[in-house]
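Suppose you are handed a protein chain with no further information: no name, no annotation, nothing but its sequence. What can you learn? This example shows the usual starting point.
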Amino acid sequence: MVGRDKEQKELLRRYRGNRAEFIAVYGRRRVGKTFLIDETFRDKITFRHAGLSPVEGKTSGQMKDQLEQFYYSLLKHGMKKSKRPADWLEAFFMLELFLQEKDDGTRQVVFLDELPWLDTPRSGFITALEGFWNNWCCNRHNLMLIVCGSSSSWILDKLIHNHGGLYGRITCEIKLAPFNLRESEELFQSNGVRLSRYDITQSYMILGGIPYYLNYFEPGLSLAQNIDRLFFEKQAKLKDEYDCLFTSVFESPDYMKKLVETLSRRSMGYTRKEMIESGSFSEGTRLTDALKALIAGDFVDRYIPFGYSKREIHYKLKDPFCCFWLHFLSAPKGNASGYWQSIQETPRGNTWNGLAFEQVCFTHVDQIKARLGISGIRTNESAWTLKGMESAGTQIDLLLERGDNVINACEIKFTAKEYRVDQAYYRLLLRRQELLRESVSQRKTIQNTLITTFGLEYNEYSGIFSNVVTLEDLFKT
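A reasonable first move is to predict its three-dimensional structure. Written in structure tokens, the prediction is:
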């Protein structure tokens, strides 16, 4: 298995223990939750069941279908035929009887995948799950209950932060994150896909290190050919993934997509007040819950831009796949086979590369800090825009405000060669530093830092940068 060493070690440590375990694994759709459990506990799972996907949009009979499928899973694992369960209380009682019959004193692993899908309206699922754990599972020292879900907000609200009968019952929670650049490279190598780190970074700017997407890459094809095959050909593998992503995770997918599409229009995002003033959203719990769910699912980031007050919380879209889809596939543009190959050196392609690479850098702040030698220093990370001004010279891509009274003002440049500072850009940086100096305490030192692909071309102006971070640094663990 590529990556996931930490998560796998923790799961196996729990498996070797001598206590009942209730483990929740959650994370973005396609991030590899099911694969992690199946690979870690291959041939060790006593009972395995996955909820039925709601993608079809069925509005009636959902509970009956879920119960029937659960019954079929019991039969497949060796339960003797009986009447089908009428509700979840009966279904879990049947599971208890099945596990008792199978119990030989060794560890029993029960894996319930896509748990949120089982919790259909008015099904009483959570109440039945409470009874299953509190009245039976928790007293069985050899039982290990593992639940997974792509709806991170559901897992957090209904299980981890539950205030009812499941309060404090989760013994281990694992939030599975997308791969970083280094792990993405390892996955490509294990699949026989040979790409340069420059190309791997571009794949990350589009797919965000989601293993399921990266596994679609075909050896022998270039990056651009693979992207065309995944998105722009007639039978493209990921052509419908955007809609499926929201339908399978959120109860109100159209509302969530509208919110994501709004946030995608500005790189620094919007405040809640700005979203409401746009006329597309109303004040209330619906917007609150939607933003909370998007943050929990790692689609949206909640932050305060440097220099803004604590009340000016911004929300920005950070999921690379959604950013790419909305930028290039949200509306018909006559895109055809070979589209991505043709756009690579165009102004539109270059603009996209610059914006997308900024998000890669935000995702790899730990690697940037390691290169700067400040891993142990507390930092706040955000972009900076001088209030009321969005012209050239009034924005900085990434600020690292450090606990040692130093600010790294990071310029992020995605180029195919060493970056060259000319006289005009040198003066722009001086002006930008001057404006930033007016906004911060005189006790703080400002260091201009360049984050780029292949480094800095040294000339009479390159000394403006105190530090340089390259792709090689971003690929380190």
